[in-house]
Amino acid sequence: MDMDLVVENKEGKVDFTAGGFNGLISFLNQSFSLLKWVFSTFLRAPKDLSNYGSWALITGATDGIGKAFADQVARRGLNLILIKVVAHDFSGSDASVTLESIKEAVKEVEVGVLINNVGVTYPKAMYLHEVEEEVVKGIIRVSLEGTTWVIRAVLAGMINGKRGAVVNVGSGASVVVPSHPLYTIYAATKAFACPFLF
Length: 198
Known about the structure:
By secondary structure, the protein is α/β, with parallel strands linked by helices. It has helices at 18-43, 64-75, 83-86, 95-106, 133-161, 172-175, 184-193; strands spanning 4-9, 12-17, 55-58, 79-82, 111-116, 165-168. The strands form two sheets. A four-stranded parallel beta sheet has the order 4-3-5-6, sandwiched between helices. This is Steroid dehydrogenase. GO terms for molecular function: ketoreductase activity.
């Protein structure tokens, strides 16, 4: 049963059903989200990252997106701790080593910005049953455990300093095609990083 809403204008009456009204609300909501994204991406002034602290820790900073993050953060005047300096391979088996090595690297500095960019995937597109067990374990260690342990290593300092920013880099594979059949584990672990809140 549709409920009729009537809006009068100078030309006459226009009838709306409840479904049409809900569609209008949905359209306006999506339009607002798009405008908000355009504003925050293209129009808003960039944040002064030094307000968060004088150091940034960037994982996966030796290549690709991580290297670009490192370049941009350095241009904004922050000191960098790159995961290569920490010299830890996230695909190793002992998570406590990850936590301790990063805590050691940041104990004398105030990390204000953490960019979790580290990630690995399969050597080629494969269905889940075709991926070797060690590859699956490595992806989980890097994208789930590594992300969690790095945040844990710097979070206490951010809380004590009452400032800080954490950026977790996800992947379109987890958002655009959320059940990507040829990269299932990669997509699932990157989906973990996007809404990770503490």
